[in-house]
Amino acid sequence: MSSDRIFxxxxxxxxxxxLGIQHVLAMYAGAIVVPMIxxxxxxxxxxxxxxxxxIDLLACGVATLMQVWGNRLFGIKLPVVLGCxxxxxxxxxxxxxxxxxxxxxxxxxxxxxGLFIFLFSGLFGQLIRLxxxxxxxxxxxxxxxxxxxxAMTNLGGGNGxxxxxxxxxxxLGFGVLIFIVLLNRISTGxxxxxxxxxxxxxxxxxxxxxxxxxxxxxxxxSWFHAITPFHFAAPTFNISAILTMILVAIVSVVExxxxxxxxxxxxxxxxxxxxxxxxxxxxxxxxxxxxIFNSFPYTTYSxxxxxxQMSRVKTRDVVAVAGILLVLVGFVPKIAATAQLIPPSVxxxxxxxxxxxxxxxxxxxxxxQVDLSRHENLFIIACSVGMGLGVSSVPxxxxxxxxxxxxLADNGIIAGSFTAILMNLLFxxxxxxxxxxKVTEDDDVFGGADESSARESSAPAGSKNGVGxxx
Length: 471
Description:
Layout: H1 13-41, H2 46-69, E1 82-84, H3 89-97, H4 103-119, H5 124-127, H6 133-155, H7 167-186, H8 189-193, H9 195-209, H10 216-220, H11 239-267, H12 273-292, E2 298-300, H13 302-311, H14 317-330, H15 333-337, H16 344-369, H17 375-393, H18 403-409, H19 412-427
Antiparallel strand pairs: 1-2
Helix pairs in contact: 1-2, 1-3, 1-14, 2-12, 2-14, 3-4, 4-11, 4-12, 6-16, 6-17, 6-19, 7-9, 7-16, 9-16, 11-12, 11-13, 11-18, 17-19
InterPro entries: NCS2, UacT-like, Xan_ur_permease
Organism: Saccharibacillus alkalitolerans
Subcellular location: Cell membrane
């Protein structure tokens, strides 16, 4: 990593290409699940959903390349992959379905939040003091908890399905979940890291044998399409929606900080404030790109960090190949449309595992980096998670509030986040020990290989690797 040159003559191009495909496969399930959830929730047609998935994959590639290549202004120049942020799922659905807002307010809020991250990237060293591990761990736990009901609804057949809860849907959904569990039990290395994607493929094949797969989205999709900005709607700017997405973006940046620090340790680089600021700016640009092209906000994908640890390949060229592949796939709607072959029950079974991993990553932060022997910390977690889950479970709780305030108060993630921030300030203040997300030498954050796998090697190795967090 001493040279700025990405593609170096130390490995056969075919091997670099195959390693790039591995990175695409490791993040692909998360990249297609988010647009499918949001698109279906806000009433998109199959044609619109195909475009959304395609532009999302393309934007993932562009966002990844911005971080990998980088320059003096933006890009951290680490082998990091970016994908659509799971943190944004519930807020985007709420904004999209809110009276007087809709899809245009979603993209206005995404653009504004990206601009906020870009402009204030140099100040995040101070702002992140508001998001110590007790806050980020609580927030990620809330995100996982609030997404699980969406997974279970899909497992039953999806909202409004005539056969909701039918035996075939239940069998498919739990069959996929059990398959993923068993695959994680018997497999290691790369197979385990893509177990959710394999579960989706196997589940869809089983559903096709049962006659529950509709192939029309693929047959109707074209082989190529042009990418246009503001394809679905020109942005409108609503202050409540903007504040919501800014908070989501800040949480994403805090988590990205942990990813950057871990990757820096793996590749043997000291990551300082200037490098972090360039990484934040690239993430801000990626979020703005998502708003302009009507896709999603983007953040680092930690399961790809696990793949870097597992494969022992820590150069940027393989991730650059992954980014280029994602861009190319984004221009081919027929490939993107294959995601729509997945029946809701199959998707729901995989989502239980995927969103459960989001939940477990939050629990892990709280367990590894927060002093749980202190009553104050337990009380902060109790109130913030309780508030987040409670608001999500009783959506009409704030029906009497003005609409501009309800968009904030009705969102369990936002309510829980504000509770965690305010209670942490009340009980812990801004003490230095709580200022940053701590990453210790023996903290195997992403379920990857042991520390020896971070040492220099260009050959893949089959060490154990967790499925990884999609947060």
